[in-house]
Write a structure and sequence with these properties.
By secondary structure, the protein is of the alpha/beta class. Helices cover 48% and strands 17% of the residues. The radius of gyration is 21 Å and the shape is elongated.
Amino acid sequence: MPRRSLGFAAALGVSALVLAACSSPSGSDPDSKKTPDGAPTAAAKGNNTVAVITHGSAGDAFWSVVQNGAQDAGKKLGVDVQYQGNGDPAGQARLIDNAVTQGVGGIVVSMANPDALANSIKAATAKGIPVITINSGQAKSTEFGAIAHVGQDESIAGEAAGAKLKQAGRTKMLCVIHEAGNIGLNQRCDGAKAGFGGATQTLQVDIGNPTDIQARIRGALQSDSSIDAVLALNPQVAAVAVGAVGDANSKAQIATFDLNPDVVTGIKDGKIVFAVDQQQYLQGYLPVMMIKLYRDNANTVGGGKPVLTGPGFVDKNNVGAVAEYAQRGTR
C-alpha cells in the first residue's frame, strides 16, 4: 500500500542517517559539544536515557510490540530505554514530569489525550529535552514543541478501512470504541464512516472487561440483524468480536486495527477479513533512533510532517508473510 511504503521509506532514510552519524570524521564525544559562548547546545543536553511513556495498559499486546521496538533500538544504539505505560492521562503526565525531573536525554510519548499532557510536555521541551510523539495526538505534536511525530494518520487509516469494507459489499457497520476519551479512536471511527458511506453506528466498551465487550457486541448484532460489518479498533477486541458474532449467529464480517497472534490466526481461519497494520514496532524503534541522531548530530526527520508507519493491510493474501513476526512480538 502507498502509505506503508512511505513508512518503510522513512525507516530507510533514518537508517541512512544513523550510518552517517556513526561515521562522523571527528570522533568526538557528541555530549561535549558547546556553542561559541561555551553553553551546551540543545541537542547535547541530558543523558543517554530515553523515557518511553505511553497510554498503554499493562499486558496490552499492541503496546508490548511498541516496547519491544524501543528496547531493540536501545540495545543496538547503546541507549538506555526506560518504558512505562499508564492509561490514566493524569498518571501519564506524572510519568513525564518524573522523567523531566530525572533529566533524561529524550522523551517518547503517545498522546491519546493531548490536552492532559500539554503542560508536562511543554515543561520537557522548555528544559531542552527532545520530545517525539507517537501513535496519537499528531495534530498537537508541533504545538507542544515535539521535534517529530511517528505513527499513522488515524483519519486516513479509518477512511481506508471503511472503504475496504464497502468494497466487500457490506452495508451497515458497527464501530467499536474501547477507550473513552482517546481521540485517535474517534478519528478512526469518523474516518471509517466517511470511507464506508453506508449506515454506521458506534459502540462504546471498556477494554478492561472482555466479557462485557462480547456481551455488548452480541447484543448489538442480535438487536439489529442488518449489521453486516464489525470494525474493531484493537486486536483484543477483534478476538472477542469473533466470539460475539458466533454467539449471535450473525453473518457480519469482522475487521480490525492492528495485529497480534490471535488476529493472524483469525485472518488465516477466515474469521477476520483484514487488519489495518500501523507497524507499531516502528513507533517504538524509530523515535529512539531519531532522538539519538538529534543528540549526536542535531538531525531532525520529517520536515515538520509526521513520519508515517501506516496504514497497510494484512489479509489472507499476505498474512503468511507476517505471521512469524507477529508471533515473536515485532508485528
